[in-house]
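Recall that a protein's primary structure is simply its ordered list of amino acids. Everything else, from secondary elements to tertiary packing, is in principle encoded there. The following example makes that idea concrete.
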Amino acid sequence: SSGINAEYGEKNLWVEYSALAVKHKAVNLGQGFPDYQTPSFLKELWTESVNLPLAHWYTRGQGYPPLVQAIAKMYSPEFGRTINPMTEVMTAVGAYEALYNALTAFINPGDEVILIEPHFDSYSVVVEVCGGVPVFVPLRPHDNPTDANNWALDRAEFEAAFSSRTKICMVNTPHNPIGKLFTEEEMEFIARTCERHNALIISDEVYERCVFPGEEHVRIATMPGAWDRTITVGSAGKSFSMTGYKLGWAVGPEELITKAQAMHQTVVYSAPTIIQDVVARCIERELSLKGEEEAYFTQLPRWMQDGCGILTEACREAGLPVVEPYSGYFMLLDTTPLDLEFDTSKVPYDVQCSKHLMEHHKLATIPLTPFFGLNKELSEKYVRLCFAKSTATLEAGAEIIRGLRK
């Protein structure tokens, strides 16, 4: 069995490490929640939503009509097709629930699911809850491992992972925790392989609005023949830096979305109406300001790049290599130069290293091992840093990083 729950007890990774950060009064560069102010325009939009009577009532289970319409309007040009808001979009209580619905709607006992690792820890847990079998294929560092885009699939290894029992392939781009952006060539290869084996694709794209300026996010659903077999998952929390809203969505062909919607209505019925109304207004605002300086989707990638730069520079000054990302909230720190020694017979090096940094240096990070089902040797010396933080938090973290080898 795989995943943090199976190997390290029943503790949830994020709950455990957030509690440890509080206990040790650590600068929290661990969990991926922004600690800076949410967009100023939200207050105005919230007032509009609060004053709307129907925003306080139950709404359509598959998704609040103004929101699914805004999502369809936002994505249609990005997917190169007209998306039907009522049949090809659903909303959920966070991208987490959207992913859960997409997986549970299709997995039967014994079905295999390709997981490209490192992967978000919930993927494998949900697969196993359904009686499915995770099949792990790693991104391996090629040439210079300090470049996130040099972590890539071994294509023969990837193709060999498919079998007659393969039901789904999970894709995550922009990638957490590496910060990689899959190229069009890589996406075409994955899509062709899935088509050849008649496998569905679930694409986790929650960091789509955090792509650094000048870089390109390629959607696997836009690859030839991929739309009909792909569910794409997005997140309001990541797109607007309001992770506490717990609102996500899924987009795809009616045949697939209808099944995921059925799971959603069984699990929670609907996401909160008022939050859906606020997010609909946020998206409509972005559509009206598309490409302009005051658009949040213009500003957010710059803030992420700037935050990444603060931590990268501190790591360089400390002589600590990092895997430089192109997107997202996270970067990997190579702790090898710290020359720490641990007994790894029971607990992996990176898990002990992360706890050591919290206890002795007041720096909260996340170990990489829990993102792997197999191939844990690739994670051994890395911890994850989050740069989606306020400048004050980043500067405090950078100061600690500079002193780690003194």
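The chain has 14 helices and 14 strands. Residues 1-9 have pLDDT under 50 and may be disordered.
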